[in-house]
Design goal:
The structure holds 2 protein chains of 2 kinds. By secondary structure, chain A is mostly helical. Chain A is about 65% helix and about 5% strand. A 3-stranded antiparallel sheet of chain A has the order 1-2-3, covered by helices on one side. The longest helix of chain A has 28 residues, at about 220-245. By secondary structure, chain B is an all-alpha fold. Chain B has one domain (about 1-145). Classes of the chains: A mainly alpha, B mainly alpha. Chain A: It is a multi-pass membrane protein.
Chain lengths: ~250, ~160
């Protein structure tokens, strides 16, 4: 039978949370809580968006995990949070916790891809309405938004460079919206484009940056703010290029 | 009538975003509600000719307070509700207009709009900070002095 250590459990929990888009202060807090409930009252954890460090005591050897890929899966964050609560309450031992965490780590997305695509499409068209667009632009924004989101996921898998994927996706949204207007299928190009680029907006990054800065995690907060800013700049540049050409 | 239309649209938009971010199914409806609450506050204040920065600040405070309550209630991390609520308030339209004017070399129009985007983003951040402070004040200070030192068989509450 496999044996797990508290360090492994702690690092695994931290890794899943950070990869799924939790705030760094929550990651550190969870890791320390887990260690404390297993009796290591002086455990130390340090998390940045790209790495986690953990030691069971100040003078013990420090363990280190690199985080290479980050995505957004708040369901996993919630589940790890629940596991951490269960450990604090004394309902799980080390092995059970490790098994549960591994199961969470291997989970697929909560929603299938086509549901997410549909959600992005509905969000786009609703944003068009919210920015005072007319209901005539509901359907064009729906189609353009879905295309933009699909292209975004496609470019993201293909290129591995996030900012460039966003740049290409927003550029495609601009061109597609322009052609819809040309063929008389849409009315206000501005409203369609604004609605369609909203699913690409780095909302989670902005929120996390603010919350990390508030919690005193200046390094993580600034890094995330920089990432959010670069993403926004990439989206803006994509649209700007389309305006230059057309 | 316009309010109902806007409320409906913001509910769908916020819930759609929640799905994109893989929010647990059980709280999908609540995410939509938080987004709707923030956007309705913003729209109502805007229709009363309140400045958009103030309207955004008020809306984001409301979003953050509701998020705090929901996070306690459903025992989930607070960012789930924060993200869904904040998304409709993000100044996407103003940012787009600013960028468009920049591209057209119309800097006189672009700079005020860009400044507006910065102000609106700051208002959102400030709203989140406010509610955090309120939450900590409630948690730390208010109740302690009303507790009897010797209740629970002489054990102090922490």
């Amino acid at each position: 039978m496999e044996r797990y250590t508290v360090t492994e459990v702690s690092l695994l929990a931290g890794k899943i949370m950070l990869q799924s888009g939790a705030e760094t202060y929550r990651v550190e807090d969870t890791m320390v809580r887990i260690a404390q409930s297993f009796g290591m009252t002086n455990a130390q954890a340090h998390a940045t968006p790209t790495a986690i460090m953990f030691a069971t005591d100040t003078t013990e050897p420090t363990n280190f995990v690199r985080i290479l890929q980050r995505e957004t899966d708040l369901h996993k964050v919630t589940q790890v949070n629940g596991i951490s609560r269960a450990i604090s309450g004394g309902h799980l031992d080390v092995t059970e916790a490790a098994k549960a965490l591994e199961a969470i780590g291997n989970q697929k997305d909560t929603y299938p891809n086509y549901i997410q695509l549909l959600a992005a499409a509905f969000a786009s068209s609703c944003f068009t309405i919210m920015f005072n667009g007319s209901w005539l632009d509901f359907l064009p924004a729906f189609v353009v938004g879905a295309t933009g989101y699909a292209l975004m996921s496609y470019f993201h898998d293909m290129l591995k460079i996030r900012f460039f994927a966003e740049f290409l996706a927003s550029g495609s949204i601009g061109i597609f919206a322009f052609f819809l207007i040309q063929f008389g299928l849409g009315h206000e190009i501005d409203k369609i484009i604004i609605g369609s680029i909203m699913p690409l907006v780095p909302g989670l990054l902005i929120t996390n940056a603010v919350r990390d800065l508030m919690a005193g995690h200046l390094v993580s907060g600034i890094t995330k703010a920089a990432e959010a800013f670069l993403t926004a700049a990439a989206i803006g540049a994509g649209i700007a290029v389309v305006f230059f050409i057309l | 009538m316009e309010i109902i239309e806007q409320a409906f649209a913001s509910f769908i938009a916020a819930a759609g975003f929640a799905i994109i971010f893989n929010v647990p199914r059980q709280v999908l409806f609540q995410c939509g509600f938080v987004g709707m609450a923030g956007w309705v506050i913003y729209t109502v204040l805007s229709l009363q000719a309140v400045d958009t920065v103030v309207a955004t600040l008020a809306a984001s405070v409301v979003v953050a307070v509701i998020s705090q309550i929901f996070a306690k209630w459903f025992r989930t991390p607070i960012i789930i509700f924060n993200v869904a609520g904040i998304i409709p308030l993000v100044p996407g339209g103003a940012a787009y207009d600013a960028m468009r004017h920049f591209v057209e070399n119309n800097y006189e129009m672009a700079i005020p709009l860009a400044a507006r985007v910065v102000m609106l983003s700051g208002a959102i951040a400030l709203g989140l900070v406010f509610s955090e402070i309120i939450n900590q004040m409630i948690r730390n200070a208010t109740w302690k002095k009303y507790h009897n030192k010797y209740d629970r068989k002489g054990l102090e509450r922490s």
